[in-house]
Amino acid sequence: MFYICRESNEEKEREYNLMREEIYRELFLAIQELPDRSREVFELHLQGKKNEEIAEVLAIQVKAVKVYRRDSITFLKNRLGNKFCWFIFMHVI
After folding, report:
1. Which parts of the chain register pLDDT below 70?
2. The pLDDT value given to residue 32
3. Which of 3, 17, 79, 89 has the smallest number of CB atoms closer than 10 Å to its CB?
């Protein structure tokens, strides 16, 4: 009986990992569709950089960083639909 439960848990974990991998792949592809500057800002955001740090690295104003981030998130929400919620749940965005 224990073996059956264990196998079931391993199966569930494998399915979860496959689903998670697919979600990350879709996010990556959607990010590649962003305009260059928006993609740069968003990738730095995903690396955990603060708006001020991103502005310094890219030599742009903090206000511009906020606009690029907002526009990127809006694009990704529209592009990914309900899957976007998974990224928030998984603490990716």
Report:
1. 1-7, 89-93
2. 96
3. 3
Q: What is the DSSP secondary structure assignment for residue 34, as one 8-state letter?
A: S
Round to whole Å and give the CA distance between 58 and 47.
14
**pLDDT given for residue 9 in this prediction:** 84
CA distance 75 to 53: 23
Query: Environment class of residue 75 by beta-carbon count within 10 Å: exposed (0-12), middle (13-18) or buried (19+)?
Result: middle
Q: What share of the chain is helix, strand, coil (3-state, %, to 5)?
A: 80, 0, 20
For residue 24, give both structure tokens.
């990350």
Query: Measured between alpha carbons, how far is 64 from 86 in angstroms, rounded to an integer?
Result: 27
pTM of the model: 0.74
CB 30 within 8 A of CB 78: no
CA distances from 88 to 7, 46, 55, 61, 92 (A): 30, 12, 24, 26, 6
Q: How far apart are CA 70 and CA 39, in angstroms?
A: 12
